[in-house]
Known about the structure:
alpha/beta; Cathepsin D, subunit A, domain 1; 3 domains; 14% strand
Amino acid sequence: MHCEFQDLDDALMDRIVCGVRDIRLQRRLLARPDLTLQKAIEEAVALEAAERSAQEIRKASSPRLARKPVPVHHEEASSDEAFSSEDDDVHQTKRERRKFQQKSKGQSECAGCRGNHSRAKCQFRDAICRKCSRRGHITKVCQSAPSDTSPTTRKSKSSLQSAKESCFALTNCYCPSGTRIGQTDSPTRRKLNVTVLIEGAPCDMEIDSRSALSIVSWSTIKRLVPQVSKRQLDSHRVHLRDYQGNDIPVVGIGRFQIAFKDFSGLLRLVVVEDQQPSLLGLDWFDALSLEVTGINCISNTETEGLVKDFAEVLTAL
């Protein structure tokens, strides 16, 4: 007695195609556009018989080379999880069969978008590729070699080269193996100084975005806070070098009351032994609301123009 499961033969056929262990048989079944349950069984039985005969011939000619026959359409399922996995495989098998059937019917793939339609009916036949700038296809099907210098990139590079803006060398900061501080002798560099209050005493500090830490000398901190002693400073775990590679002795690290504009609070300050200028480094930037401008300005004018000109193409993507 059969249940009311529709297309029982198709379901059984998909189970057979999905469950065969012989990849050659599975490919043959998938390649047949007119596959039915009966034909699938005949193919499986025929290949199994051929495999068994070949095994017997090899066993008779050379017993050492005999192998155990492997059933080609054996299927096991011991749990609901196994059935769920088989259902996924069945759906995948159906999709693969549709692909083979479409190819067997001579339906070609569109060269402009890889869709299942003719080239003349493609909606992207007048589109301009964003990779090679040629008309007639979209980026995902473009076969042109990647170019290192696109027109937009070349234009951006030329505009950057023509700009006369000084940039801070942030990549020269490193810690804790060696935090570089100090200044270079660049004639184009303009010093920026601000006055902050350290424990209520004004201190003129140079803003140095190339220094990862804020630094003052021992003589400066002693002048600003006479009651401080070296024993009150924490033991240092940083190694400082100037831009000539010379080591800078560190006395210690302390937390001092800092006031600047609307900010007032405790900030870390590195105290050094030598007569070094007072530097306001990157570690204070967030607290004091300082920003580096002039190196991260990106104009969207050109991009917005392209989006506006090719709105129809970009919307379709």
